[in-house]
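agent> step 3/5: call structure_predict on target 'Carboxylic ester hydrolase' (Melanomma pulvis-pyrius CBS 109.77).
agent> reason: downstream docking stage needs a structural representation; sequence fetched in step 2, passing through unchanged.
tool.input:
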Amino acid sequence: MRFSHSLPLILLSSPVFGARIEDFKARCEALSKGIEVKGYNGISVNLAQYITKNTTLDPTVEGINTTCTSWIPMPPIPVNLCRLALHVPTSNSSEIVLETWLPEDWSGRFVSTGNGGLGGCIQYPDLAFAASYGFATVGNNNGHNGTSGSAFLHQPEVLEDYAWRALYAGAVVGKDITKQFYGKAHKKSYYFGCSSGGRQGWKAAQFNPELFDGIVAGAPAFELPGLFAHYARFSVNFGTGTDIKVSIEKWTAVQQETLRQCDHLDGATDGIVEDTRRCKPDLSKLLCGSHGAPAVCLSPKELSLVEQVFKPWVVDGQIIYSGIAHSGDEVIHVQNLVGEFIQGPTTWASEWPRYVVHEDVNWDLSQFTPQEALLWKQQNPYNINTWEGDLSKFRDRGAKIIHWHGEADQYIDITQSDRYYEHVSRSMRASPQDLDSFYRYFRVGGLQHCWGGAGANSFGQSGFSMTPGDDPEENLLMRIVAWVEGGEAPETVRGTKFVNDDKAQGVVLTRKHCKYPATNVYRGKGNGTDEAGWHCVHT
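tool.output (status=ok):
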């Protein structure tokens, strides 16, 4: 329980309060003497330090891999807490680096955070975010350091950590430490993550259903090898960097035509496609020489290449990847996939086959073929595809999961999440009403990968995004708590779009996102900024 703002200031400066702080600090620093957890021999303590509110960690002093610090910000720590950093062996040839943050005002809850990409990066913003709500919080490096997959080469134990074991070990050890430190066990345990972190949450639900009482899993990287094959195919078909076969100018024409044909379908012309399932534009209108073709047009070959991207990719009867949704945000999607802004997708497309599939450091994208893609998908080390459809064990123990995905995701397309939901429905022979008892899925219009985008993209989904507040209506972490502990299942998720995605600059719009399979339809006045004008409709 946190102090309310109405508490007398004299309490905060009283000898009793000061003694409590000193006791907490002493107990924290005593952890440096060592930690023992059953089943995990050889745990070593790197540091045990009491940290006061508003302290900012210095990544250069911390020795954090520079490939992590280049994209993970180091936010001020929002509360007084005990920070414990450990090395936890997971086998004779592998270990994780685990951080456990134990807030002074503990809520009695435990939460684990996830990772991203191929990384080995502790997501400090997520640790800070969860700790601010009183959660005992853990995060780990997923068994290796940095964003590269090179650590997997000839190291199956390290790969197994990445696939599932690092998260499991971190949660088990973190829970035990929490009990040792506070003198009592947590009352409920949670997980939240996005991207690879979303996949990790689903991996736990599918294979370790006892691990968490509530899971928030965003933009999950289902069928990860197929996703990397999709990146490889895109690079081969379109090129990389600025030397690409269909120019950004022409992709801009594709985006504009998509919005022209689809933006109004939800009832509001606001630059946001609220339901990509309904958007099926006729791109032949961009064909050079056709009636009404724009000045920037597509040749027959370019049109064929572009249309191919939006269709499921099937090799020998097996879906490798679902295809890209028509989101009206195609330009940033392409810029990211060809590596104009960030090297992630093109690098992952090379590193996965190089360090995992073939274990050949000389492998490159010139060797990629459709049969290669099939091999990647079928190899599936440690069941990293994370595609099990029977969630009955998770359901039967009373656990809950909130699944969310941005419809303008430029890395992992929302069609993958749609396919997975339907896969669960078929596997469990369960209708959406049946699944609602434990599994709810929200499609978020205008949201890019994990955060950002033109839509109402902030809803307490991570420490990387602005959070409107701690009301469960607009904070997914607190929403899963309300569902697990209070039975308050979410019908909608309320998002906020801030000016320049900066909370300090004010609000552009708010919008409630609908529970699948409903779609968001505008029946209000104006261009869609009236939140009350939006309605969840089953079509």
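agent> step 4/5: record observation. The first strand starts at residue 44 and ends at 51.
agent> proceeding.
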